[in-house]
Amino acid sequence: MGRKYFGTDGVRGPANSFPMTADIALKLGAAAGRYFQNSKNLSKRVVIGKDTRLSGYMFENALTAGLTSTGMNVLLLGPVPTPAVGLLTPSMRADLGIMISASHNGFEDNGIKFFGPDGYKLSDEVENQIETLLEEGANGLAPADQIGRAQRIDDGLFRYVERAKSSFPSGVRLDGMKVVIDCANGAGYKAAPEVLWELGAEVIPVAVNPNGRNINHNCGSTKPQVAAETVVAHGADLGICLDGDADRVILIDEKGRVADGDQLMGLLAQRWASEDRLRGNALVATVMSNLGLEQFLQGHKIDLLRTNVGDRYVVEKMRQGGFNLGGEQSGHIIMTEHATTGDGLMAALQFLGEMKRSDTSASDLANVFQPVPQLLKNIRFSAGDRPLDAEPVQKTIAAMETKLAGQGRLLIRKSGTEPLIRVMAECTEPALLEQVVGEVVGAVEAVCQA
Fold it and tell me: Which residues are catalytic?
């Protein structure tokens, strides 16, 4: 069966539109409950976290109804970062963890991400089996006397705060440092400022007043302008921008300049390798990471292992090879010694720890390599269309790859979360870069409009 509901990061879409409706969420909860009832784990526990979107209440209740109908007991964490769900699922001996979030998307969207009893995101195989159970319908419900219970858990956020603090270098404090933290009006709005303050920093919070509709709105990791201006205005040492579910981070140095996930991964890989902490002497990243990062790592005799786009695929590669550092250019930084998925706050703490250890400014640490010029453009297409299969598009792509040979690379892919074709190229020659991307975009648009 094809993947009807799950994309590259769980189920996602506009709230109250397929597949993100209360009805499907209820059935999805029941299907997941049935699947884990048949597993070898016997706790019958599920932990559910969410971000601050208005529709989170609806999906939380629908999932809870579906899960309890199969006899699963639900522990509701309330608004917590996605990595908190990954951490608390095994900590609380749960069979399943669920995060209700659409990450960096606007409030109109929402999503449902699943974590297994080990705290890692479910594999494609397990998601496919849950889809099959969903399609089969509402058989396998629990007898009336075995319906599950649901309860609010008040200390979930506190547990995560303490876990995040424990990832910071032992014996080091942030006293004397001024830090801007942009929480995107999302899931990290309580935890992130609290962790930084308890570690000693003077904290300047931005976007920490969620109202259900303002998550990621002109703030957070995808729109860091306000945070950058705040850093400069307050003379802060560092700016930290999280996204809506706090699993990714973008850094801002004291001059207001933005550093993406590639720069942070490059710094950590170099530092960890020098301390013999980088397992396999390799960094795992996606095909989107900049060619400049690859060249920087080669200069330090560190391997770069690339995966498909999506932090779950980075994690899978890391687990298969026993690697402990990976991530995405977008700011997902995965450090398996500290968390089971990307954690924006913990990644920022590693950067702050390096600032303290080396007594170096953020501007000197946040730009460890010169990026190769990169251009990314998105083309929206209608549901059901397959523009990349069209012969004119394939011929154009082949011709542009030939033009780039030896000078850069071209990457075209369909988004796993939106009806978009993403066209990305890297090249040291700006004019050629514009030409290559422009011709591919033009070919795709011509097919979409035909």
Answer: 103
